[in-house]
Amino acid sequence: MTISLKKISPEEYRKNFADMKPALSESAAIVEAGRCLFCYDAPCTNICPTHIDVPGFIKKIMTGNYIGSAKTILSENILGESCGRACPVEVLCEGACVMNDKDELPIKIGQLQRFSTEWRRNNKKSIFDIPESNGKSVGLIGAGPASLSCAAYLKLNGYDTLIYEAEELAGGLDAFGVAEYKLTLKSVLDEIEMIKEMGVKIQTDTKVGKDISFDELLKKHDALFIGIGLGRTRSLEIPGNDLNGIHDTIDFVKKYKTNPPGETAVGKNVIVIGGGNTSVDAATAAKRLGADTVTVLYRRSESEMPAFAHEYEHAKADGVNYQWLTNPIAFMGDTDVEAVKCIRMELGEPDDSGRRQPISVPGTEFTIPADMVFLALGQVADKEFIKSIPEVGFSNGKIVADPKNGKTSNPRIFAGGDVVHGAKEVVNAVQAGKLAAYEINKFLSDEED
Ligand SMILES: Cc1cc2nc3c(=O)[nH]c(=O)nc-3n(C[C@H](O)[C@H](O)[C@H](O)COP(=O)(O)OP(=O)(O)OC[C@H]3O[C@@H](n4cnc5c(N)ncnc54)[C@H](O)[C@@H]3O)c2cc1C
Ligand code: SF4
Hints:
The protein is an alpha/beta fold. It is about 35% helix and about 15% strand.
C-alpha cells in the first residue's frame, strides 16, 4: 500500500499559518503601553531570562520614542524580535505581570516588544555604534540564537567574530524549528541581517569537524564559542522503524517552513509520538496542513505531560486527539507505515527523579491506523563531535560548561545554549550567548593585561 497524502492550497496555507498573535498597530501599541503600571522591581523583568527592562521599553513606546524602546530591548536581547513572537510569555513575563492578580489581562509584553523591534527594522534604523576592531578574533560554531547573541555582544566590544554554520542558512531552530504561525522564517532572516550589518560574519555550508577541523579554528581564533544546539530527534528502536512515512519532527517542521505555501504534503491519519512542546508543534502543523486525524501518543498521563499548558490548549483547539498511557511497540506495513501497534501503560513506583515510571499492561495491545508518523522524543547532541573537542567535558548528553559564563575546562573554549542547558527556549540561548560574550571579553582583556 502507498502512503495516502494530502495537500492544502497556498491560500489555505496562508490562512492556517497566519500570525497567532498579529502585530499591533501604532495606536493599539500606545493604548496597550498606557495600561502598564511601570512596577518598581518589575516581576516581568526579573522573570525574563535576558532581564530586559520591560517597564523601560514600554514607557518609551508611550512617549513615541520607538527607537529608544528598541534599543532598550536589543541591548539585553539581540533577538528581541524573535523572542517577542516565540517566547512562551504565558509562563514568563506576561505570566508574572501584576495585572493577573487584579483579574485583568496581562500587558501584551511580547506584542509590544515585537512592535518596537519591527518598527526599527521597517524604518531601517541602526541602534548601536560599533567600535573599531581590537584585533582579536573569536570563532563561533553554529549560527543558532546562542552564537548569534554571543557574536553580536562581542562585536559591541570590538572583537572580530566569525560564525561557522553547517546549514545553508543561519538561524538554527529559531529559523527552522519555531512554528510558522508564531515566527516566520523571513522575520528571523531579516533579524540576522541586522546582526550581519553590525559586522558579524557568518560562513554557512561549513560543518566544523567535516569541512574545517577544530584544530584549524583554534589556530585561527583567540577564543571559540560552541553553540551547536542539540541535533536530531531521538530514534525509536521498535520493529518497523525503517518504514516510509516515519519522520523526525524537526526535519518535518523545517520542510514545511522552507517549502513554498501549499507544497508540503501530509498524511490523512497522522500519529505523533511524545508529550513535549515539539510534539505539539508537529501535531498542530499536521492538522493545519490538512490531516484528517492527528493523534498524540504519550506513555504517561495528562498531568505528567511536559508540554506547556497553553501549547496543549492550542493543540486541542486545533482538533488534535490525545492517547494517554499509551506506548508504541511496532510500526506496521510492508514498505509504508499503515498502522502503529500500541500497548496501554500504568504508572508504577517513582524512580530517582521522583517521576512515576510507566509499565506496560499485558494483553492491552491495539492498533491505530496511520499513514504518517512524527517522532518527537527529544533531541540528542552530536556526541562524536563534542568528544573530539580538546579538554571539553561531555556528560548527560550535554557539554559541561558553567551556565553563568559558558566556561569549559579548556580556557580558550566557551559553550552555551541548548547544548549546555538542554532543550529550552530561544530566550535562554540568547542569554547564554550574552553571558559567554562578557566572559570571553574578560578572558581576552585579562590576557592582554
Ligand atoms: C520544533 C521546535 C519548536 C520550538 N519552538 C520554540 C518556540 O516556540 N519558542 C522558543 O522560544 N523556543 C522554541 N524552540 C527551542 C529553540 O528553538 C531552541 O532552544 C534554540 O534555538 C536553541 O538555540 P541554540 O543556539 O542553542 O541551538 P540551535 O538553534 O539548535 O542552533 C544550533 C546551530 O548549530 C549548527 N551546527 C550544529 N553542529 C554544527 C557543526 N559541527 N558545525 C557548524 N554548525 C553546526 C546547527 O546547524 C544550528 O544551526 C523550539 C525547538 C524545536 C525543536
Ligand atoms: S524576551 Fe521574552 S520573556 Fe523576556 S520580556 Fe521579552 S517576551 Fe518576555
